[in-house]
User: Fold this.
Amino acid sequence: MQILILAGGKGTRLRPLTLHTPKPIVPIANRAFIYYQLDLLRPLNVDGTLEVLLSLSYQPRKIEETLTHEELGGITIRPIVEPHPLGTAGAMRNIRSRVTGTLVVFNGDILTDIDLRPLLDRHRARRAAATLVLVNVADPSAYGVVELDAEQRIRQFYEKPAPGVTSASSINAGIYLLEPEVIDLIPDGREYSFEYDLFPRLLASGLALYGEVTNAYWLDIGTPERYRQANADVLHGRLRRYPPESSPSLTADGSLVDAEATLKSGVSVIRSVVGANCYLEDGVSVVDSVVLAGSRIAEGSRLSSSIVGRGVHIGSHCVLRDAIVGDKSVVTDFSRLG
Ligand code: GDD
Ligand code: MG
Assistant:
């Protein structure tokens, strides 16, 4: 079984968090994001032949260095660095010579607990060329919207449609089951997008394209709001795979505080994540926020709905609300951000 994780994007909407940390390895609940995707894929490794192709472009070495052998648990990972960003479909074309059968493609920023096995069975039973996993969301405008017919065949695809273009609410979940003939439609060696280039071509090709709507937990972690949401959802057991009781370090206030963080007197941490080697001085309060490793928050500062990168120094008596602070920044005493 072969999986391709598209992990080469620049993570622009998550800046400044992604300036020094590519999106596939930003920490969610103090663990690099890519491990959640590998957890999901591990059950597919029934015969020990699971191969995960990792297509990289933006800061590839950091991703390669993060993947440690113990955490991989028997999965073969093959990083493939693109000569230049090839786009979502170009990345698939780039690995064509390695593909031996049905390929499962994953956007590298999808947090989900979907079970892929029944989808693979149906994909094969129907002899589909491509099956797109779909999910219903309240506001589809930030995604690729897919219209199906009564047989679940894909009729139309609209990437990030303007208001009024379609009334469909099923969106492309960024998980595709593809046969090699689909990859053959992609031109070699140039930037090519799945959403804008390949999909229209696929619709015109007459190949059998199906959509499968899932009710599983699903979230694209690629904006600050959704990044915080992902942390909260993992903490609170909204993914079946990570029930809260599996995290003994969760505090009574629903927070995850790394064992190597120091909390001085009167500190309150509520529904938040605090990373290793953080130092929170007297009276600091952190609510609905994520504070990454090695950051220091001086006395009396209050954070809510905020994200603090690695190695940040926040001075005393600051107020951060809906703020996002990049790695190694210094925020002076009495600042108000957000
Ligand atoms: N290897 C490689 N090379 N990967 C890339 C490249 C590239 O040039 N460009 C983007 N990617 C990766 C990103 O790292 C990400 O994991 C994935 O492709 C999707 O890119 P995003 O930038 O996150 O796209 P999006 O979220 O706006 O939209 C996509 O995902 C939605 C679901 O979350 C589209 O596929 C939408 O149709 C879909 O609904
Ligand atoms: Mg995305």
Notes: The two ends are 46 Å apart (CA to CA). Residues 194-205 form the longest helix (12 residues).
